[in-house]
Amino acid sequence: MGLNGLEDRVFDAVLFDMDGTLVDSTAAVYRAWARWAVEHGLSEDQMRGHDGIPAASIVAKFLPEAEREAGVLRINELELNDTEGLLVLPGATEALAAVADAPNAIATSCTMPLAKARIASSGLVAPKVLVTADQVEHGKPAPDPYLLAAERLGVDPTRCLVVEDAPLGLQAAKAAGCATLAVVTTTAREKLQADAVVSDLSEVRFEAGPEGIRVRSA
C-alpha cells in the first residue's frame, strides 16, 4: 500500500479529527440526531450528509434564527446523555501513543463538554491540545480548527499532517494548508479527496524523531 509520497515527508505535528477517525461514535450520533429530527419535524433524509459539521451549523440550516439557540442546547443535551457504545477505532490508540511525545492535537466539531464525554467513554488517551467547535468562530469546513490547533502547538500549519474521515473535514485541512491522510471509516473511498487514503489507522504507523514525524505503511 502506498501513501502517495506522504512517507517521504517529515511533519512538525499530526492533527487528528476525533469522531470517525479515532472514535466510532456513529450509533450515538445517529440516535441523538434522529431524536432531534423527530422533535423538530424533520425527516431522516434531511439529516444526511452532515458528517464533520459542527452542530450549530446543522441547526442553523433547519431552524429560524429565533429557535437556533434552543435547538443547539437540545442537541447538545441529547448527545451528552448518550455516549453508549463508543469504540476506539483500529490503530487509533497506537497512533496517539506513537506521537505522544511529539506535537499532536485533536481538532473536532464537538463542543468541549461533548468531546471530553466521548473521550472518557471510549477510554481514549487524548493529547493535551484539544480544539473544539466552541473555541473557533467558524467550524469545519472552514480552516479555523486546524489553524488554531497548529497555533497552540507552535507549528506552521503547512508542516502538519491532518488525519480525517469526512470530506468537509478534509476541506478544512486543505484550506489550512495541511497535508491530508483520510481514513475510510464513515465515507466511501471515492469521496475522500486527500493526499493519501487508508482503510483505518491500523494500516499506517507514525514515527516520531528529532527531525519530526513520519508516517509509514504498516
Automatic annotation (TrEMBL):
A GO molecular function assigned to this protein is: sugar-phosphatase activity
Which InterPro entries does the record cross-reference, listed alphabetically?
HAD-like_sf, HAD-like_SPP, HAD-SF_hydro_IA, HAD_sf, PGP-like_dom2
Report the Pfam families cross-referenced here.
Hydrolase
Database matches in NCBIfam families: HAD-SF-IA-v3
What is the designated name of this protein?
Answer: Sugar-phosphatase
Q: Source organism lineage?
A: Bacteria, Bacillati, Actinomycetota, Actinomycetes, Propionibacteriales
